[in-house]
């Protein structure tokens, strides 16, 4: 395994571990998800540039656009949650309650 592949895999694994272990605040969960999306963008960009496949060149840009939409939706949920509940603790949220 090359050092670049090891770095990308370990960064993605650290983002998943951070998302699964430190879920106290909504901001930290959103940052871990954003980190995973950026690592996926980097990996897909490197893969498609290495194999020189021109038909799949818009795929990383579409992934980056979806990542930006996910980030804006997450921040909107963060603002709405902090206004209604007063904080962004995930354990205070009940998803089944209206």
From TrEMBL:
Subcellular location: Mitochondrion inner membrane; Mitochondrion membrane
Keyword Transport in record: yes
Species whose genome carries this gene: Urosaurus nigricauda
GO BP terms in the entry: ATP synthesis coupled electron transport
Reactions catalysed according to its record: a ubiquinone + NADH + 5 H(+)(in) = a ubiquinol + NAD(+) + 4 H(+)(out)
Membrane topology: Multi-pass membrane protein
The enzyme's E.C. designation: 7.1.1.2
Biological role stated in the UniProt entry: Core subunit of the mitochondrial membrane respiratory chain NADH dehydrogenase (Complex I) which catalyzes electron transfer from NADH through the respiratory chain, using ubiquinone as an electron acceptor. Part of the enzyme membrane arm which is embedded in the lipid bilayer and involved in proton translocation.
Alphabetical UniProt keywords: Electron transport, Membrane, Mitochondrion, Mitochondrion inner membrane, NAD, Respiratory chain, Translocase, Transmembrane, Transmembrane helix, Transport, Ubiquinone
GO CC annotations on file: mitochondrial inner membrane; NADH dehydrogenase complex; respiratory chain complex; transmembrane transporter complex
Family: Belongs to the complex I subunit 4L family.
Membrane spanning residue stretches: 26-49, 61-81
Matching InterPro entries: NADH_UbQ_OxRdtase_chain4L/K (IPR001133), NUOK/Mnh_C1-like (IPR039428)
Name this polypeptide is given: NADH-ubiquinone oxidoreductase chain 4L
UniProt key word Lipoprotein: no
């Amino acid at each position: 395994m090359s050092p670049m592949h090891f770095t990308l895999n370990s960064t993605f694994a650290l983002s998943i571990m951070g998302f699964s272990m430190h879920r106290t605040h909504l901001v930290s969960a959103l940052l871990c998800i954003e980190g995973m999306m950026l690592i996926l963008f980097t990996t897909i960009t490197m893969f498609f540039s290495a194999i020189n496949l021109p038909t799949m060149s818009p795929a990383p840009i579409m992934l980056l656009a979806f990542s930006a939409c996910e980030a804006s939706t997450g921040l909107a949920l963060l603002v709405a949650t902090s206004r209604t509940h007063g904080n962004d603790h995930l354990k205070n949220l009940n998803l089944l309650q209206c």
